[in-house]
Amino acid sequence: MTPKQNILNLTYQVFCDAVAELGLPKFRATQIFEWIYKKHTFNFAAMTNVSQSDRDVLAQYFEITLPQVDQTQDSADGSTKFLLKAQDGRLIESILMRVQDRRTLCVSSMVGCPLKCRFCATGSEIGFIRNLEAAEIIGQVLAAESFTGEKVSNIVFMGMGEPLLNREALEVSLDLLLDKKAVGLAPARITISSAGIVPAFSEVINKFGVRPALSLHFPTGAQRSEYMPVNRGYPLAAVLADLKKMHIKPRDHITIEYIMLCCINDTEEHAHELARILRGLHVLINLIPYNPTATFDAQPSTAAQMDLFIKVLIDRGLRVTVRRSAGTDVDGGCGQFALRREAFLGKVGTRTHCMQSKCSRNQRSRCKKCDNEKF
Ligand code: SF4
Fold first, then answer.
1. Domains in the chain, start-ordered, CATH in brackets?
2. In percent, how much of the chain has pLDDT > 90?
3. Which atom of ligand 1 is nearest to the CA of 228?
4. What pLDDT band is residue 295 in, cutting at 50, 70 and 90?
5. pLDDT band at 326 (very low <50, low <70, confident <90, very high)
6. Number of CB atoms found within 10 A of residue 261's CB
7. Which of 159, 191, 331, 347 could disulfide-link 342, Cβ–Cβ 3.0 to 4.6 Å?
8. Could you tell me which of 88, 82, 72, 69 has the C-alpha nearest to residue 347?
9. Is there a catalytic annotation at residue 16?
10. Is the complex ipTM more than 0.90?
11. Distance from the CA of 343 to the center of ligand 1, in angstroms?
């Protein structure tokens, strides 16, 4: 007997074709999608406007399986972190951020990540475990909406993993996020963040019309290679050339993510070099205060250094924002929530910072280069 297909892995069109093959009317596919995506009902038995005989046929060939909420943490800034458990017991992390009416869900595309960026808890401490299925990506949205009763208005692919290295599942989940029969978000409300997997990056952005965010973080190829091994396979020049191929609407932009590391990438020279390589691109630079991890020996930039960096960029005609880091009081950096839970389960070492604010692992430290005290 062939295994049941998880409907959350199927686009509307593919599900329509499958329903037709079973000899059921096409409107059954529309009804089932409404139950799943609009009413958050994941059990055929509760789909009362579908005849019992058709429910029996559907249950014979399909299932509706999404990851289950394992833990949540509410942050003082109003965000909620979700740790979801997949069917194989693996943990998937997502964060719901609340700003005024906006509900932005940061979703993961992998368990862990193979790219090993040195400043990132996911890459350096968890490593790559596996890709997520489309059902596990879209399941993060459905789980957050069901759990909170709130409608997600924006999606950012900025959680664990590199989405473009899981392209098939990414494309199915984008189809479902955009399709009015499923989640039904406008393309401008979805952002794909990539460390620079090209040419897949521009291909996906142009195909779906969603917004791009490049995790750039360093203004030279040499520095990128030192801190982001992905640069050895996807060099900076090729990544910048790929950005130029993207169809960006006149009022829109490419977001450039840049983590601020004291004395590593935050000098005036770095700011000038950043402005130089981005010349001619319509970008918004998003500076990210570094959220320390235990395995990377670096400190966040000082406020004064950030101000200087921002001034150089603005003087060079660039637009700059500083990211408010959601949930940093509850292990908010990429992968840190999952890492702490995995440590609790004995799957990885306890190397992340301690939840007890007085723990010696959380003591103030100094930047080894400028000797400024940081936390
Ligand atoms: S920063 Fe992103 S791309 Fe780099 S290791 Fe972490 S999850 Fe992967």
1. 5-63 (1.10.150.530), 72-374 (3.20.20.70)
2. 80
3. 4
4. confident
5. low
6. 23
7. 347
8. 88
9. no
10. yes
11. 19
**Structure confidence by residue, pLDDT tens digits, 163-209:** 999 999 999 999 999 999 999 999 999 999 999 999 999 999 999 99
- pLDDT tens per residue, range 70-123: 999 999 999 999 999 999 999 999 999 999 999 999 999 999 999 999 998 888
Cβ proximity of 374 and 300 under 8 Å: yes
- CB contact at 8 A, 96 and 82: yes
Ligand 1 atom closest to 194 (CA): 3
Q: Which residue blocks in 77-218 are alpha helix, DSSP H?
A: 121, 134-148, 167-178, 200-208
Tell which atom from ligand 1 comes closest to the C-alpha of 119: 1
**Cβ-Cβ contacts under 8 Å for 33 (sequence gap 6 or more):** 12, 15, 181, 182
Question: Environment class of residue 325 by beta-carbon count within 10 Å: exposed (0-12), middle (13-18) or buried (19+)?
Answer: middle
Query: H-helix or E-strand containing 258?
Result: strand 254-260
Alpha carbon distance 254, 284 (integer Å)? 6
Residue 157: CA count within 13 A, CB half-sphere: 33
Residues near ligand 1 with C-beta < 6 Å?
113, 115-117, 120, 122-123, 160-162, 195, 215, 334
